[in-house]
Amino acid sequence: MSSTIKMKGRDWKILVNNIISGNCILVIGPDMASVEIEGKSKPITSHFANHLVGEIDGNPKIGNEDDLEEVIEAFLHQEPEDALQFEADEFFRENCDERPVYDDLAAIPFNLIINASPDKSLIRAFERKDLKIDKDFYVDFYNHKGRKRDQARWEDEKKPMLFYLYGSSDNWDSVVVSEIHLLDYLLSIISQTPALQSNISSRFCDEKTSFVFLGFGFQNWYLRILLYTLLGGKEVQKGRSRRSVALEKMMTDDKSDSDRITVLFKNKLNIIYPERKLDEFISELRKLCENKLKGKEEETGIRPDHEDDEIDIPGAPSVFICHASEDKKEAMDIYRSLKKGQLNPWIDKEGIRSGDNWNLVLERTIKDIDYFIVVQSKAMAGKVRGYVNKEINLALRLADEVRAGFNYLFPVLIDDSEPLEELRKYQTRDLTDISNIKGLIKDIRRDWERLKR
Predict the structure, then answer these.
(1) Pick from 10, 74, 247, 408: CA 20 to 30 A from residue 66's CA?
(2) Whole-model pTM above 0.90?
(3) Sign of the C-alpha dihedral, residues 421, 426, 432, 434?
């Protein structure tokens, strides 16, 4: 595939940070799981197709015995649908991909894992780590034939969720196993009857979310439609700011078609295709995540520039801290207090505002933020020119877009200076005593809870 790239150290660093902060979803596609058959690797879905062929009486006319859809259609000519779903349940309970790549995946701290295949290989990998369902991780699924369920069963969102997008083989009626099922499934997803659980769908649509796609199958039209719908339909046309990664086998006969698909997703969804074997990529990613969490530097160029409190809290609102450079110490005190208050503060720790890059990222950063704090002081009041004025002006424009009764902009004072003229219509909170920040945290969390309703 001509559109593959070699990942740089920066690319690895961004990916690792997104995973650890809970802003990266792992999507395991139907081409991922495989088994060894006579020394050769075969997709587990093809192995299931071969298994079903052995359950069909006579000599059925099947063009490709590895094609699950074709084999299922032949199976259903002889057997009822509940027999098919019984076979699926038994097969995927007993047959799992036991390659080390699944142990590597289980060790990478993905917060949400979407499985577009009915296999249980990753569940077995979690269990090999002595992790228990409903205690250490959660498992749930979407049932396109079932009743609407507002939320997936994910009681503690700090623990991983393994979500089966095509249904669970433990619930026969939910599994998508034939072309008719697939068409019904797509209709259910698109029409939201029933809608995908909101605590799953919201993560797909979140602009802050990036993805790691493994064997997703972008060459399949129905998977492209599914992804388009999950990402918000027409919202996809706006593009995604956060980069995602896909390790994929483009299995179309027309190479130009493969390149066209690759470029489409690269441009619209900001997806890159690394020049790495899947197993090697995941092994390297596991090592880098473990080293990042341990604070170690790795040869790839990822440096231990984080503190423990830099790891984002999944589901918590993000808060931009606008401050004068002279007030760095006070701004960092606010940062740490917000973090202790279970919020996700953002502050320029690396001085990028002093460089040209800031103009490139400022607007996107602030637009992605849920709340904006202005740290007012004598130093800020004295800045007739400077980046803080640009930040405040942009925040004021965004605040005007917020519906009455909700908040976005929170000015605070850290000394005995007067509030800035342009912020006088907003309530200014006194943080000359940092302990007063408890009230600010409470107000932000209350506003956030109202927004989520």
Answers:
(1) 247
(2) no
(3) negative
C-alpha to C-alpha distance for 284 and 262, rounded to whole angstroms: 24
Q: What is each CA distance from 162 to 28, 136, 230, in whole angstroms?
A: 10, 11, 17
Sheet of 371-376, strands arranged across = 344-346, 318-322, 371-376, 409-413, 429-430
Alpha helices by DSSP H, 254-404: 255-269, 278-294, 328-340, 357-368, 378-381, 387-399
Spans of the chain below 70 pLDDT: 1-4, 172, 177-178, 233-241, 249-268, 296-312, 314, 349-364, 453
Q: Which domains does the chain have, with CATH numbers?
A: 4-33+96-294 (3.40.50.1220), 36-94 (no CATH), 316-452 (3.40.50.10140)
What sign results for the dihedral spanned by CA atoms 54, 59, 64, 68?
Answer: negative
What local confidence, expressed as pLDDT, does residue 253 receive? 42
Distances (CA, A) of 117 to 67, 135, 323, 438: 15, 23, 48, 46
Q: Quote the CA–CA distance of 395 and 373 in Å, as a whole number.
A: 9
* 3-state SS assignment for residue 265: helix
Cβ(283)–Cβ(254) below 8 Å: no
Span between the terminal Cα atoms of the chain, in Å: 45
